Amino acid sequence: MRTCIFTLCFVLAAVCAFSQTPPWPQGRHDATHQGRSDSNGAQAGTLDWGVPLDQYPNAMASSAHRIYVAGQKIVALTEIGTTAWSFTHDSTTGVYYQDLAYSGAQQSIYATHEDVVETDPFLISIQTNGEQLNWRRHFADSAGLSVDDAVYYCSDGRISAVSPAGSLLWRRPACSTDVAVSSAGVIYAVYKDLNGESTLFGLRKDGSVVVRAQISNDSQDYFSSPAAGKGIVVVASSENGSLIALHTNGTLHWKKKFDGGVSAASIGSDGVVYVGTLHGLYALNPNGSTKWNAPIGDASRSIPAIGKDGTIYESSSNQHVYSIAPDGKLNWNIRVVGTPTSPIVGPANSTVVAAIDNGQRFTLYSIQ
Description:
By secondary structure, the protein is mainly beta.
């Protein structure tokens, strides 16, 4: 009897561990790209550790006990900053891994990469212990990947859906950005044509088009991937400073213009939209009006991360990482050596950033 109970408890613990939502499994947390974690980030604003990286940090993700960094290889670090494992596949010319996603449910880590000489990229799946390549799939080019029930990515102007086993499910036009998948199962991406017009596309998970809406005819608009919230899709023109919110059918909800570039947007559980700008972090009410502005310097290159408790984490080009309360009040800030990347929520209620010092020295920081 005791053996059966022990076995049952072990199985239940394993199931719970795999079903637990990781703090930050992929870029912008999940396929909706709302940038909102189910875990809390750093509370005190104290540096836990900083470790040097031997590669440019192209992408980061985290699970319950690991931090993953993609660059010339995929590296998994423990909660205390030691290297658990590293992965790179055989290549005579060298590899750059560019996008990264962890899936506990599928027991896989997905990444895109390019060989230095063979510039056409590949999508790969590896085991979560880094020991084995599951599969490798060639495609034309990519603007990023999103993992939901399938792996979605933009390639050669078309949205592709790939099963967890690596088989192509479908390819449909059109995209220039990576995709976001709404909770209703609609896949959104922005496509910019040769005339400079930008269109929002929405597809069902069978690949059929349900939304096609022109959002800009300004050739200077270069849109980031959408954020798909409840009843809203938000896109940002990273260079032109435009932030556009659309209803899920593609009709305009509101539009706001900022001075200079803006980051991609994140969306809080209350529908408040957060965006990094040249003049700090802005919080916008669901109707597009300004709720508050936190003057933290140039945050236009950093996508805000939102903790479970609503705390917003943002990086600035002034070499500081900030924690800001939902009412706009500063909780804390901490200086790092170099320009910090977009923050993510890490294991054990931490906030993780990588900092790039003069393009030559790279450091990964964990903040508690």
